[in-house]
Amino acid sequence: MEIRTFAKNFKKKYTDDAFKYEFKTPEKNAWDRFKEWLAAFFKNLFHFSSNATALGFVGALLKILAVLILVFVVYLITNALLNKEGQWIFGRNSDKKRIDHSEIEKNLHRIDFEKLIQGTLETGEMRLSIRYYYLWLLKSMAEKNWIVWDIEKTNSDYLYEIKNQSQKDEFAYLSYLYNYIWYGEFDLDEGTFAKAKTAFEKTIKSIGNE
Questions:
Q1: Rounded to an integer, what distance in angstroms lies between the CA atom of residue 118 and that of residue 199?
Q2: Is 124 left (phi over 0), alpha (psi -120 to 50) or beta?
């Protein structure tokens, strides 16, 4: 009969990780403890039947909050980009639409156009300068009761309201300059800008002196 013996190191052999059957719960980090705290709070608030149900609710709630925060951040970034004077996203038509409905036109009679124009001249935004000159012209005419200002009106509407033929002709010419420069798809040169700038300033000054 063969006598079997056990190896001397058999105890060491069976202490390897493969033979460990005792499960140790992972240590909880701050995030886990925070979720458990929220779960306990909502469990008491909504009378959930178990901790697992409360934890499930907290998990879903946190996911929804994460999505909302992401959407809000994207909105802030997009809004910041679109509020710039550049046209790199949608081109000139989008920029025009934004200005048409801006606070500048809504508060036309309280705007300091000289200051606005000075800023555009310093940054070299010649087209925007002409846009502000045109709005300044409308403001000046409205203050003299030549026209009744309305954000929805067109150049033709204002032209019809002006009774004096000389004033009507002058406004028609300035409207032509404005449309040509603001809506024109071309590179605005210094000469054209200077001509328009002088014409607007002359008319606005003459209206103020009346």
A1: 17
A2: left
Rounded to whole angstroms, the Cα distance separating 17 from 22 reads 10
Listed in sequence order, the residues at least 6 apart from 72 whose beta carbon sits closer than 8 Å to its beta carbon are: none
3-state secondary structure (DSSP) of residue 87: coil
pTM of the predicted model as reported, rounded to 2 decimal places: 0.52
What is the average per-residue pLDDT within 83-89?
Answer: 45
User: What does each C-alpha distance from 165 to 27, 169, 173 come to in angstroms?
Assistant: 87, 6, 12
> What are the residues whose beta carbons fall under 8 Å from the beta carbon of 99, sequence distance 6 or more?
105, 131
Domain boundaries, the chain: 30-82, 92-209
Spatial separation of the C-alpha atoms in residues 186 and 86, rounded to whole Å? 16
143-175 pLDDT tens trace: 999 999 888 888 899 999 999 999 999 999 999
